[in-house]
Amino acid sequence: MELTLTRPDDWHLHLRDGARMAAVLPHTARRFARAVVMPNLDPPLTTVDAVLAYRARILAALPPGAAFEPLMTLYLTDETAPEEIRRARASGRVLGAKLYPAGATTHSSAGVRDIERILPALAALEEHGLVLSVHGEVTDPAVDVFERERVFIERVLAPLHERFPALALVLEHVTTREGVAFVREAPGRVAATVTAHHLLLNRNALFDGGLRPHHHCLPVLKRESHRRALIEAATGGDPRFFLGTDSAPHPRAVKESARGCAGIFTAHAALELYAEVFEAAGALDRLEAFASFHGADFYGLARNTGTLTLGREPWKVPPDYPFGSGRVVALRAGETVSWRLRGPERAPT
Ligand code: DOR
Ligand code: ZN
Q1: Are 129 and 170 in contact, with CB atoms under 8 Å apart?
Q2: Residue 246 catalytic?
Q3: Is residue 211 helix, strand or coil?
Q4: Of these residues, 9, 10, 238, 246, which one is catalytic?
Q5: What is the pLDDT of residue 195?
Q6: Cα(170)–Cα(98) distance, rounded to whole angstroms?
Q7: Looking at residue 123, what is its pLDDT?
Q8: In this structure, what CATH number is given to the domain that contains residue 10?
Q9: How confident is the model at residue 349 (pLDDT cuts 50, 70, 90)?
Q10: Is 313 helix (H, G, I), strand (E, B) or coil?
Q11: pLDDT for residue 344
């Protein structure tokens, strides 16, 4: 069996930088025409100049002949000036800004400490029609780690949306039924990206036969009833939900340590993993809209024109892949993925 769809986009991706970026970028460029590349480098990309320089490094690292467009986003801090947002808009290359609550995840220490301080930047985003991408978790240590998304929606996101009703919002990597409900019910331009790993795994995967660092990501995996809600949202045809892998590679040694860091690498089989989810839900006919239409429509960009074909052909994921001077362990390492990418090594233009 084969499945051909319009070439998809990844609306949430971590590419890192330098030799590590060069190692993981081909996985994404083979499958996706475009990707929204996250700005949480070290140091983070807090100015439009830094974002555009990173974009140029991505383009320079592409395999020859690859047709891939990085879509950029600015890292918000308490200090981001409305003028920087205006510059982002004027560049024509930056889709919006990313709100990381300070300390919520990898390289977020420079993120937002006080929402009150970013109100001018949010107003500028709204005014210029740019998108606010949100890592939706509170960092309050008193809040249970599995409740941080739900509490963030109550305490931060819902009030923010009320205050800026015309601001386009993406709740990135939604993981809970409360997140899904917020997106479904919010008036205006509100959407969510959904990762393959949150669709495929529940929190049992963190402890399956021992502590499993390669299943650790943020927001952390949730219980099965939340995974069910995500599957319904992603496969149900609602245009407010679209593909965002949050593929987040880290060196093997950094994952397999006493404080294994958060991030799951899925770029090696990104679309194939989503195909498994849609097949299991009996919704393969809806994969194309989720992967190739809803995100472009939300961001007001043209849909892609080329196609990509997957075959129903199980293959075994290698134990790890090159990652700069180290290796990265991908989701399903040493195990099977049931769909395989067809066609040339690189996607056609
Ligand atoms: O698991 C994650 N990894 N979640 C994030 O929010 C950041 C990402 C990373 O950059 O490693
Ligand atoms: Zn991310």
Answers
A1: no
A2: yes
A3: coil
A4: 246
A5: 99
A6: 9
A7: 98
A8: 3.20.20.140
A9: very low
A10: coil
A11: 60
- Domain annotation covers residue 152: yes
**Distance from the alpha carbon of residue 2 to the mean position of ligand 2, in angstroms:** 30
Tally of domains within the chain = 1
Q: Are 178 and 156 in contact (CB under 8 A)?
A: no
pLDDT in tens, 114-142: 999 999 999 999 999 999 999 999 999 99
Query: What is d(CA 267, CA 284) in angstroms, rounded to the nearest whole number?
Result: 20
Q: Does residue 21 line the site of ligand 1, with CB under 6 A? A: no
Q: Tens digit of pLDDT for each residue in 142-162?
A: 999 999 999 999 999 999 999
The verdict on the CB of residue 218 being under 6 Å from ligand 1 is yes
Q: Which of 141, 138, 175 is nearest to 155 (CA)?
A: 138
124: tokens are: 């500028």
Dump pLDDT digits (tens) for 192-220. 999 999 999 999 999 999 999 999 999 99
The domain in which residue 302 lies consists of: 2-341
Residue 349, in any domain of the structure: no
**348 found inside a domain:** no
pTM across the whole model: 0.97
H-type alpha helices, the chain:
18-31, 48-61, 82-91, 119-128, 148-152, 158-163, 177-185, 196-200, 224-235, 252-255, 270-280, 287-288, 294-299
DSSP-derived 3-state class of residue 269:
helix
Using the mean position of ligand 2's atoms as its centre, give its distance from the Cα of residue 333 in Å. 21
What gap in Å lies between CA 43 and CA 29, rounded to an integer?
25
Strands (E), the chain: 2-6, 9-13, 34-37, 69-75, 94-99, 131-134, 168-171, 190-194, 241-243, 307-311, 315-316, 321-323, 326-328, 336-337, 340-341
pLDDT at 348: 37
Per the structure block, which two tokens stand in for 118?
């970013």
